[in-house]
């Protein structure tokens, strides 16, 4: 199997960033604040659940110096960042501190156990609150609306699936000829896929309702590392500097990857699994690898997961146990799981003025003509924030997390870097990238947070990481090779193990 789906990880951006800022000559006095009880964010012990798969292109969520920071099972955050993590502390608001002298930020926090409120003051803040840490439940599906409609069955958001799993399995027994209690899952994204597959494998009756399901790529055989763990896929992917003819070539390439993936997963022409986003226009893709016999697609193919698609849940029927769909009859749900995605974790923590001040306001972008026949823009995608220079957020994998952490550290330290000369130049750069992204990926999930609106990478994380390395005057394309072989060189996170020393050497040379 070439996807590292079973890799245990409890490493996330906050931990990698903190560790990088703390280490060696960077030497910041770092404090990590999290509302969680254990480290790892999405991958913390309390959040993961059986069936949750890591689907990264390279399957890697690591740190280059893994042996020093890997968290053996059962370890506490103190193993990773001794005494540096303030657990169970929720950030309520961040505002600028006294603007005279050294800039600072005031952070209002609440102790989740005692309810005690405090204001902490820091000179620098790195936001690593994640794009998938705040459940999004559309108003018309809220529990208040459900109560008003007398819907009396349990409703759980997919974000709580891990800690409610036992309840769910107790409430809904395995289906048999005598008992038929069904779980309905709303959404077609990765959470809906993983959760429905897990529950179906536990013998539960599951129905998934979606308009479109998240695309997956798959192959009958594992791709060799020189293809999947190199820059090859990333250079085939759309990037801001591509020209139109190349785009056309790329579009066709992705369409054929999609067709091959459907074939590898045995998806029939008339299957609802074909109702998916295009790989060409969409940024995120599930990397299925070699299809699993007990995975989502196989279970749908075999009729072990019911699918109602294309359909959208519009509300609750008044009979106490059914949900309404936009097309078709109401559906009985003995337990409802809303895999309706995630909202921005930033909205609550900045007041309007601070958000505007630091550039997190959304506005209409000028139309930017580039490619023909894009899919229609989602209604919620018409306003973009475009003021975050390089939106140092982008993609999810250990490599780019670590490079980004060094970039941030260099920036804080005032190292010589290849940066815009002034704020106007930075804004222009950000606006240009936002416009490109806006046109190139109209399906982008902007609810995650504002950073997604100005820069987002998925397959193209190697280009992105290379750019950041070059900003620090460090060697990019570190996997080596010559002019012909570089796209096929396997990228390893260990290439980054000496970044601290390299940056320090640059500092000494005053590069
Ligand atoms: C079900 C699921 C599956 C996923 N699968 C993949 C995958 O296969 N591959 C992949 O690359 N990505 C995946 N993701 C995306 C996931 O966001 C990333 O894997 C990764 O966790 C991102 O790291 P992060 O540090 O940015 O965010 P997170 O790991 O979400 O960490 C954010 C942290 O900030 C804390 N926080 C947020 N707001 C506050 C606040 N106000 N106060 C205090 N603390 C706060 C959170 O509690 C959390 O500890 C998945 C997400 C979900 C939900």
UniProtKB/TrEMBL annotation:
Its cofactor is FAD. The keyword Isomerase does not apply. InterPro entries: FAD/NAD-bd_sf (IPR036188), FMO-like (IPR050346), Lys/Orn_oxygenase (IPR025700). Belongs to the lysine N(6)-hydroxylase/L-ornithine N(5)-oxygenase family. SUPFAM superfamilies: FAD/NAD(P)-binding domain (SSF51905). Its EC number is 1.14.13.196. This is L-ornithine N(5)-monooxygenase [NAD(P)H]. GO terms for molecular function: oxidoreductase activity. It is an enzyme of class 1 (oxidoreductase). The keyword Flavoprotein applies. Coiled coil: none annotated. It catalyses: L-ornithine + NADPH + O2 = N(5)-hydroxy-L-ornithine + NADP(+) + H2O; L-ornithine + NADH + O2 = N(5)-hydroxy-L-ornithine + NAD(+) + H2O. Pathway: Siderophore biosynthesis. It comes from Mycena metata. Keywords: FAD, Flavoprotein, NADP, Oxidoreductase.
């Amino acid at each position: 199997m070439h996807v590292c789906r079973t890799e245990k990880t409890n490493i996330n951006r906050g931990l990698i960033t903190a560790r990088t800022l703390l280490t060696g000559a960077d030497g910041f006095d770092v404090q990590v604040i999290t509302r969680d009880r254990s480290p790892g964010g999405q991958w913390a012990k309390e959040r993961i659940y059986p069936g949750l798969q890591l689907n990264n292109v390279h399957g890697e969520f690591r740190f280059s110096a893994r042996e020093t920071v890997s968290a053996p099972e059962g370890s506490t955050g103190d193993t990773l960042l001794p005494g540096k993590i303030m657990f169970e502390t929720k950030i309520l608001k961040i505002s600028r501190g006294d603007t005279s002298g050294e800039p600072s930020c005031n952070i209002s926090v609440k102790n989740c156990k005692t309810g005690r409120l405090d204001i902490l003051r820091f000179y620098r803040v790195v936001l690593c609150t994640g794009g998938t840490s705040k459940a999004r439940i559309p108003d018309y599906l809220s529990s208040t609306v459900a109560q008003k409609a007398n819907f009396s069955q349990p409703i759980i958001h997919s974000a709580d699936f891990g800690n409610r799993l036992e309840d769910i399995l107790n409430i809904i027994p395995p289906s048999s000829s005598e008992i038929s209690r069904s779980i309905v899952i709303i959404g077609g994204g990765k959470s809906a896929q993983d959760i429905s597959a897990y529950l179906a494998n536990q013998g539960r009756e599951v129905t998934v309702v979606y308009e479109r399901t998240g695309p997956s790529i798959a192959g009958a055989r594992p791709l060799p590392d020189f293809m999947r763990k190199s820059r090859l896929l990333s250079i085939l992917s759309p990037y801001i500097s591509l020209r139109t003819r190349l785009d056309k070539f790329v579009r066709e390439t992705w369409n054929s990857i999609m067709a091959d993936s459907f074939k590898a997963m045995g998806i029939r022409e008339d299957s609802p699994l074909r109702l998916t986003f295009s790989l060409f226009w969409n940024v995120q893709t599930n990397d299925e690898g070699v299809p699993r016999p007990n995975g989502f697609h196989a279970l749908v193919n075999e009729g072990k997961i019911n699918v109602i698609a294309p359909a959208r849940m519009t509300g609750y029927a008044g009979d106490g146990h059914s949900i309404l769909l936009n097309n078709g009859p109401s559906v009985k749900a003995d337990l409802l799981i809303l895999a309706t995605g995630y909202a921005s974790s930033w909205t609550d923590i900045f007041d309007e003025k601070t958000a505007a001040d630091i550039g997190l306001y959304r506005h209409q972008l000028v139309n930017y003509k580039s490619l023909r026949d894009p899919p229609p823009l989602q209604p919620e995608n018409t306003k973009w924030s475009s003021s975050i220079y390089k939106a140092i957020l982008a993609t999810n994998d250990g490599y780019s997390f670590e490079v980004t952490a060094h970039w941030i550290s260099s920036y804080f330290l005032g190292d010589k870097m290849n940066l815009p000369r002034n704020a106007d130049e930075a804004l222009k750069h950000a606006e240009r990238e936002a416009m490109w992204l806006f046109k190139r990926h109209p399906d982008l999930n902007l609810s995650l947070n504002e950073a997604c609106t100005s820069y987002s990478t998925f397959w193209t994380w190697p280009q992105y990481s290379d750019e950041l390395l070059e900003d620090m005057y460090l060697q990019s394309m570190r996997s080596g090779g010559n002019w012909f072989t570089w796209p096929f060189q396997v990228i390893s996170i260990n290439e980054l193990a000496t970044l601290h020393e390299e940056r320090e050497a640059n500092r000494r040379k005053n590069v």
